[in-house]
Amino acid sequence: MPVSVGQAVVPRRLPLSNRALVLSWICFLATFFGASAITLSLSLILQVNAVSPAYWWLAATLLILWFATLINMYRLTIAAILVER
């Protein structure tokens, strides 16, 4: 027998803890500011030292380190969110 709307039980989502919210915001800000910094540094490399391989190696190394850090931060954040549920 169908239940009327007034009597329906809607499962309530558990709110996230402060730690999970802080981790989520840190990941978002690291992604945003890292992408901005990489865009700025690549534009400066192209304007000033486009032919120097040392600048390209440094930019590539920093990009790889940034991606590795982001992957680890997102992994920790998702694990913190899944543990709470």
Order of helices and strands: HH
Could you say which structural class the secondary elements and strand pairing correspond to?
A: mainly alpha
Residue-averaged pLDDT: 80
Number of domains: 1
Poorly predicted regions: none
Question: How many E strands?
Answer: 0
Keywords: Membrane, Transmembrane, Transmembrane helix
Transmembrane segments: 21-48, 54-83
Walkthrough of the structure:
The protein has one domain (18-84). Helix content is 74%, strand content 0%. The chain has helices at residues 18-48, 53-84. Helix 1 (18-48) runs antiparallel to helix 2. It is elongated, with a radius of gyration of 22 Å. The chain starts with 17 loop residues before the first helix and ends with a helix. Keywords: Membrane, Transmembrane, Transmembrane helix. The chain crosses the membrane at residues 21-48, 54-83.
What's the topology here?
Elements lengths: L17 H31 L4 H32 L1
Helix pairs in contact: 1-2
Structure at a glance:
The chain is 74% helix and 0% strand. The chain has 85 residues and is an all-alpha fold.
Keywords:
85 residues; mainly alpha; 2 helices; 0% strand
